[in-house]
Amino acid sequence: MRLRSSILCALVAALALTATSATASAAPRESLLPLAGSSAERVRISDKVAAAKYAQWHEASRWGAVGGTGSPIDDPAREQVVLDFAAKRSAELGIDPVRSVALFRDQIEASKIVQRGLFAFWDAHPGQVPTERPDLPTEVRPVIDRVNGELLDELAATGHARTSPRCEPGLRLANAIAGRQWHLDRLHRAALHVALGSACVR
């Protein structure tokens, strides 16, 4: 009887701990660091996007097959896929799709800032061009898609923090910390600043 009682007590305690953990994970976050961290990761992934596009552009140019937008960086079709995902997922999470789409436009522009910066550097320093060519559909975009999902989860969790008068100073601090954690240089820090331009609700 005592053994059965002990087992029952242990189960109750385990369930209580699980419930507490679930409540804590679902609770609104005051810190904007996870949001900044996910944005910093996305900015970093732009290096691989740039490497893939740079190789594709030069190969197409060599064969006279350059077309589309006339730019190796702009990809309107892919950008629309990202924005449509942000709007659809926002509705599922109960957050404002308009604000989410605005933030993802900033994320896309931040990626382009990195890509343009790296293209210019590689044009000036051909010896620094990456020797490995990442595959966009199979290697790079799945990572971006994962980070995009994390960004939307963070938007849902930080609604209170992003509408607070303290949002902007808090975001600057979070950006500074994330920049150090991800070892961002000046180009990538500038991109991170742009990436979260719509994070605070003014």
From TrEMBL:
Gene3D superfamilies xrefs: Chorismate mutase (1.20.59.10)
Top-level division of the source organism's lineage: Bacteria
Coiled-coil features, chain-numbered ranges: none
Domain Chorismate mutase: 11-119
Protein name: Chorismate mutase
Residues annotated as signal peptide: 1-26
Family annotation (Pfam families): CM_2 (PF01817)
Keyword Signal assigned: yes
InterPro entries: Chorismate_II_sf (IPR036263), CM_dom_sf (IPR036979), CM_II_prokaryot (IPR002701)
Keywords tagged on the record: Signal
Species: Amycolatopsis minnesotensis
